[in-house]
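SEVERITY: medium
COMPONENT: batch folding queue
REPORTER: lab tech (J.R.)

DESCRIPTION
The queue accepted two submissions in a row. Attaching both inputs and their returned structure tokens so the on-call engineer can compare them side by side.

ATTACHMENT 1
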Amino acid sequence: MADDDRLIGALTAALVKAAIDIAYEDPETDNHNARVALAYQVLSQPTEYAERFRWGVTSNATVLDKWTNDDIAGAVGDLQFVINSLWDAYSRSLIPA
């Protein structure tokens, strides 16, 4: 799955949606500054960040199971949830405090 080029297109779209949502989230959200900094980086280089998120997303058992069982639409539908759940971890690791 991680080597499937179809994944990058779907990941890129989901990352851009998440980045836009996070750019406008409540400033009181925990880890807001790092979350927004990552959002702006994703918006400026979406494909590069899709490559970075690829491994975190493909480690999700539900997405992996659907993808490997040719339920690509189902896996793509779950990408947004997985990206949203990984955002804090990536923002803390990619953005200096």
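ATTACHMENT 2
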Amino acid sequence: MKLEFIDNSSPYLKDIKKLWRENSQTLGFFPEGAFDDHARKDCILASISDSEELQGYLLFREVWRGSILPIGVIVHLCVTERERRNGVCKALVYKFRELKKNTYFKIELKCRQDFIANSIWPKLGFVYSEERIGRTGQPLIKWEIRFRELPLINLIEKSDSEDRLQVVLDANVLYRLQDPLLDYPLSDKYLSEEAKALESDWLDGITLIITDETPNEILKNNNPSERERRLLFANKYPRLHTDIFEVEKIEQELGQFFPGNLSRSMRSDKKQLAHAIAGNADFFITQDEGLLNRASDINNIFNFRILSPGEFIGRLDESIREREYKPSIFAGSRRLSISKVTSPGDATLYSDFRQSTTGERRRDFERKIRAFISQPRLYSVEVIRCSNPEQNLALVVYDRNNPEELKVPLLRISKSNRSGTILRYLLRRSVLISALEGRHVLSIRDSTLFSNFELAYIESGFVLTEPQLWLKFTIAKADSGLSLQKILLDMKQKKQAYQKVLDNLAESLLKALENEDPVALIEIERRLWPAKILNAPIPAYIIPIRANWAQHLFEEELASQTLLGSEEDLTLRNENVYYRSKHSNTRIKSPARILWYINKSKKYEGTMSIRACSLIDEVIIGSARTLFRRFERLGVYRWEDIIKTAKGNPDERIMAIRFSNSELFKNPINLELLKSIFLRSEGKNIVLQSPQLISRKTFTEIYNLATKEMD
């Protein structure tokens, strides 16, 4: 027996699909295209016999939920009937456990309570975690194997999550969800199976919805009993709320993609799309080839995804991340502006930021804003706007009454498909403001967003300490772990209300230092960012980068400066990706630190120096096509740029480095100084043609010099 990951060119992929089909009553529907996507991402582990025959497979997803490490979610574990009770199932799980124990926080799965497999999971090391009712109405048991405990992980796990993707179903998908497979001819069976996969119990974090156009589409059927049957089924799904005037406006704009005399069906398609876009849904799922062929063009204009069920399921985790964080939506002319609010009388403020859930009245809203505006030395009220189209995006109030803490008593985000990105932008900006002002604590208290955007807070290093209070420590200091622990303990004396969190962090920091655990130390660093634990056993690399890419990849506000004259507001880009050839003398690991060396360029000043530091979250090697699709939401690289890295071959395997928490240096380290540091610390000359692993001593010296306050 041999156990190996298979890709989409493997001859065993066909056998895996066949084995799934034979067991689909238990495994559930799964689109053929989703198998291909998982194979491309090395997410299928196969067991092959000595006679080169498939014995079974384990198919899994890699899910990020705010931790420095992902979670492995098992979707299928299936063994051929002949090989059952021969140890294949155990071998697959044990191999998967062994391969992922250092790179995953945990592995988990969900299994129907009435399935016999529930008796197997404890024998394979899984622990019962929770249960709930699945999409099919049957109880689901959640099983997990934890590989490590991370600081404050109980808060991280709460992101599993009330904030669901709003997924609009086209009528053709809705009908196939309703009708049994037997009602379809063999040629249409694939489409029916693909649609039914949307109701699988393992699909977390989505809500399937319909629009007001769906009943109108059903009405076109001439058979009264069929209309009644369709409408009864459609009404099981929530209806997307839309403004009719906005729908009509968008429908008109969509006309450019639907020229000429339209059939009744195409007119309905256009209206369905207009509803989905106007209602700020996240995705539109269809099996209409005409719409799918127009999907890319429509997305370029409306920033709205149209996918087939198979594409959506195959990219589910990327789809969730795309909705959560997509800075590319502000590229080009969609610039942000931040201005002080001097009067609460602006009618758009109330209409865009009122708390509709509590029925907040205009008088109460304006009274609250006026109270803040009347004390400009203690409070600042800011509104974030976007141009093209011009609209209010966020309203934030900063409270500076306490010199050691920056408080945010009010934070409102207007509802749109940009909300997740804007919230991350504001959290990031608030952290930077607090750190620059020398405050060690940032607290945000407001009831508007907490159930919807929990993951955004967690990923930004915040901790939920009360039902409506998020806390982030903003220590602008690079020092040893023990020195930072002392700061936390000193803070505890002054901040009794935060004693539990500070105790947890101080204890976790000491334990991680004793165990030399780089993953736990990185997790703690994120809670304290922009602090750096300089004696942490975290790998560090110097990575050379072209100047034209550097200006787009780094955040620019920590040092209140612009790197190489970038015109974009790059605080949006806390998370980013850098592509390069997979060939390198140095193997790059994660998590790790990067020092960015800007290559020589005549177009820009300040090159040939180390100018920034980042944290590596993930290093992925895959085909150019797959990696571009995965990270397209980040919006810096275009396909033309990626294909150059891949030497013109879309299937060429390249490297993507996903990084975050970038920090610009006050004192860039020029090449001459870098050479002398490197020779002194490493005992050799530096080579800057490819990534270079450096010692902790070298990193510390460069970082301290680059961030030192100059006389």
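NOTES FROM REPORTER
Residues 153-162, 328-334, 555-571 have pLDDT under 50 and may be disordered.
No errors were logged for either attachment.
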